[in-house]
Design a protein that fits this description.
The complex is a heterodimer. Chain A is of the alpha/beta class. Chain A has 8 helices and 7 strands; from the N terminus they run H-E-H-E-H-E-E-H-E-H-H-E-H-E-H. The chains are: A alpha/beta, B alpha+beta. At the A-B interface, helix 7, strand 7 and helix 8 of A face helix 7 and helix 10 of B.
Chain lengths: 182, 264
């Protein structure tokens, strides 16, 4: 692929906490079996949650009605691979930040990924997808909204289930509406 | 143990079916007839609101619809059932911040739009529900979802009484619209008001949404306290023109809200 074509890629990136469903979300809407780079986690906190996790990136693609390709990328959950984040988000039209609400500190996780993508978000938009909300409703959606407002980053907050195509499409529709109208 | 039965089938009822029958009056054992009688003994004819329908009003007064009835129930902290002929019943559990209905919110439109004096209101003695409360709570949904939908449908394109059309507003909370009725219509309004502070006419213009739809959305947000009002007007400068063709293409490919048939 030439550098010019790469620069014109239509890219959407799923980022966020470990176990939030980034790999699953890509697999839910991708036309091809997602390319994953899974390995046994090296970070103890991650190992306690998952037997394998993304180490470099996930990749999927969707052929649009006009024949163009939408490239779907997922960032690694382990923090030692955070350097991949700006590489993957470069040129993306937006990001979907997935937060696993069943973790101990979902708001801290949210802060982490907002800070990690702060440069990208100076010019681009995001949507926050809250997964595992059926497992734990604390913090509530209102509390997450409040938290984002306090940070002056009032991105839309949507309950999400990465296993559900309808739910992933809702996240993308919300991002597209934010890009067009916000 | 006595089994409740559906009237026509004679099939023994267990678990959740039994609970539904118990709550909504299909249980036919003598034991349950008695229990029904005890629980629904307080049919609140005295609570039926002596309100004239406002079908000719140009503004929306919640007290004249289910929304007002539910708001009263929440203030009083009582558990009540709402019934309208031809529509599924709704049980409101203010203590749990939940409601229960066997129907989806979209299918409760008739009761949301009905004048309050056509809705039968029954008081449910919470103590009598103790033994089934766990099951009831499990099958119930957030009360905010009911309030949102009652406001959205009850408004019928009219703005809440007393609202200043020129007031500058913006969203304080992103409503859970993805899981609520009229998502496709409400999404552009929510997105616009999430990033901009302006009046309702401007919202309608900028999102190319009919004003009555904007009013319905406003009323639902206002009912749940999702709006900031009286803020300085602010419309964000866009660094790049939105690539509408791309957004439409992505959404339509995925069968999202921009799919032509979903926009009708």
């Amino acid at each position: 692929m030439t550098a010019k074509r790469k620069a014109n890629q239509i890219k959407l990136v799923f980022t966020g906490s470990v176990g939030a469903g980034k790999t699953t979300a890509i697999g839910t809407i991708s036309d091809i079996p997602p390319v994953t780079t899974e390995a046994k986690p090296s970070e103890e906190s991650v190992l306690q949650m998952k037997s394998s996790t993304t180490i470099a990136m996930d990749y999927g693609e969707l052929v649009l009605l006009n024949g163009n390709k939408l490239h779907l990328y997922g960032t690694p959950g382990q923090r030692r691979f955070d350097f991949m984040c700006p590489i993957l988000t470069k040129g993306a039209f937006g990001i979907i930040i997935l937060i696993n609400n069943s973790l101990d500190e979902p708001l801290t996780e949210l802060d982490y990924y907002l800070d990690l993508n702060a440069t990208f978000l100076k010019e681009k938009k995001a949507v926050v997808g809250v997964t595992h909300y059926d497992v734990k409703q604390s913090p509530s959606l209102k509390e997450i909204n409040d938290h984002l407002h306090q940070r002056s980053t009032p991105w839309p907050v949507v309950r999400a289930d990465s296993r559900s195509r309808e739910s992933v499409v809702m996240l993308i529709d919300t991002l597209l509406a934010t890009l067009e109208y916000s | 143990m006595a089994h409740a039965h559906f009237e026509n089938t004679g099939t023994p009822l267990t678990g959740w079916k039994r609970l539904v029958a118990f709550l909504f009056g299909n249980a036919k054992t003598s034991k349950h007839k008695n229990k029904d009688a005890q629980i629904f003994a307080h049919t609140e004819s005295e609570l039926q609101h002596q309100i004239k329908p406002d079908s000719e009003d140009r503004t929306f007064t919640p007290q004249q619809y289910l929304l007002g009835l539910v708001q009263t129930t929440i203030r009083e902290g009582l558990t009540r059932k709402y019934s309208l002929s031809g529509c599924a019943d709704i049980v409101v559990l203010p203590e749990k911040n939940l409601y229960y209905s066997s129907a989806k919110l979209e299918n409760l439109k008739a009761i949301f739009e009905a004048p309050a004096d056509k809705i039968k209101v029954s008081l449910i003695d919470l103590k009598k529900l103790d033994n089934i409360m766990d099951q009831l709570t499990t099958r119930s949904k957030p009360l905010d979802d009911l309030l949102w939908s009652a406001a959205l449908y009850g408004s019928k394109g009219r703005l809440l009484t007393g609202v200043n059309l020129e007031e500058i507003i913006r969203l304080k909370y992103w409503p859970d619209i993805a899981h609520l009725p009229n998502y496709a219509q409400n999404l552009p309004i929510a997105a616009f008001l999430n990033g901009n502070a302006t009046d309702l006419n401007t919202v309608a213009e900028q999102t190319e949404t009919p004003l009555p739809v904007v009013y319905n959305f406003y009323n639902a947000c206002e009912t749940l306290g999702f709006l900031e009002k009286g803020v300085p007007a602010h419309i964000q400068d866009k660094q790049h023109a939105p690539d509408k063709d791309l957004y439409n293409n992505i959404s339509a490919t995925l069968g999202g809200v921009r799919t032509p048939e979903k926009q009708q």
